[in-house]
Amino acid sequence: MPDTIAVCGANKFPFDDRISASVTRSSFQLTPSRMTSTDPHHIWHPYSALLSRQPVYCVESAHGVRLRLDDGRELIDGMSSWWCVIHGYNHPVMNAALTAQMHKVSHVMFGGLTHAPAIELTEQLLRIVPPGLQSVFYSDSGSVAVEVALKMAVQYWHAKGQPQRQRFVSLRGGYHGDTIGAMSVCDPDTGMHGLFRDVLQKNIFAPQPHCRFGEPCSPQDIQPLTEILETQSNTIAAVILEPIVQGAGGMWFYSADYLAQVRELCTRFNVLLIADEIATGFGRTGALFACAHADISPDILCIGKALTGGYLTLAATLTTREVSDTIDQGEPGVFMHGPTFMANPLACTAAIASIKLLLDSPWQANIARIEHALEQGLAPCRDLDNVQELRVLGAIGVVEMKQAVDMKSITRAFVEAGVWVRPFGRLVYLMPPYVIKDVDLEKLTRAVTLVLARTG
């Protein structure tokens, strides 16, 4: 009798060993000719063009904070693979957790079914997120988490009998993702989405706060947003912002006092507050969530990136019981969203392991150590003629240049210096894994300083 297929994993698929061996050989033996013929001719990379001739480096393996290229070179990763690999690569605890879950169930639809990893992760999150958030919706990526948040806000007001509330207020300099809804709340000029201006919802943009982190918020900073809410709150569903740190829109660190006053304004004018903590969540700024710097809690919270320690893509949108109950009690009586890979068991398992690793570590002292090392190591950049400003907060170091960098040449220079740094525009920034050691931090910051000095 042939083997049967079972979700529990106790039985095996009927499988042809010859096909398995063939797939293994073709998939993992990457020859130089395949690298040069397939990748540049057929594979798009983020914000790139086919045949663009931008340098692309092939990673053979990774361990700790090091990426090993196929030519044998090793690079210290200063980016945490776009801010998510907080525990480094190939972590034994993460590997073991995923291996164990893989032998149980790697994926099962979340419609009508549930599983232990989703339940445990939800319990974990509810213990650590800002107070008042009680309902969790899982999705595949940060952009989708933002889409879900926007839909939640619109559906909430529809259920409240105020369907005209469909617009959003965002901050200049903000970035919230690359999908259609998320693009509509990114900075319309610096958010990289000007091409799609005519198809995006026309939302409202308040000026970027000029008050810096650690400073009080002046009346001049908060007044524009106050005026927007005073005059237009009856059509506004929510204010959406990145707490404290504006990420890909400019890497700007703003006042916690400003954030606290935004929370007060949203409460006063009965507008929801959406906090996009996809980049800042899980300790990056020195607080577990950046909202804690202002001691506020949003009505809706978006998280992702570091949620799984960079192992698998997973995001979540959390909200209050008031919002979720109102949606449930309105028409059509359900929240209108449902991704295929929602709450994937492997991704939830990775998130459980990652959060436990973080909370069991002296993460606050570790972030303070990295902050000090970034400040000290990047300090010489202040004296370079081509540098506008240096900013450091938590495990984030930003060197703002006077002119946009040449991506092709500067990327090659960083690789030759033994580090992986991926600038954009005028911003050369570091967000290293939390496990990085002082000696590697020193090498990383020295490489950045030397490369920028040569590009001047």
Low-confidence stretches: 1-16, 21-25
CATH superfamily of the largest domain: Type I PLP-dependent aspartate aminotransferase-like (Major domain)
State which percent range the strand residues make up.
15-25%
Q: How many runs of DSSP E, i.e. beta strands?
A: 16
The ordered string of helix (H) and strand (E) elements is HHEEEHHHEHEHEHEEEHEEEHHHEEHEEH
What is the number of helical segments per DSSP (H or I, 4+ residues)? Answer: 14
Question: Given this structure, which CATH class of the largest domain is correct?
Answer: Alpha Beta
- Shape designation: globular
Helix content: 25-40%
Span of the ends, CA to CA:
72 Å
Largest sheet properties: 7 strands, mixed
> Mean pLDDT, as a whole number?
92
Q: What is the domain total for the residues?
A: 2
Q: What is the structural class?
A: alpha/beta
- CATH hierarchy: architecture of the largest domain: 3-Layer(aba) Sandwich
Major sheet strand order: 4-12-11-10-7-5-6
Rg is 23 Å
CATH fold field value of the largest domain: Aspartate Aminotransferase, domain 2
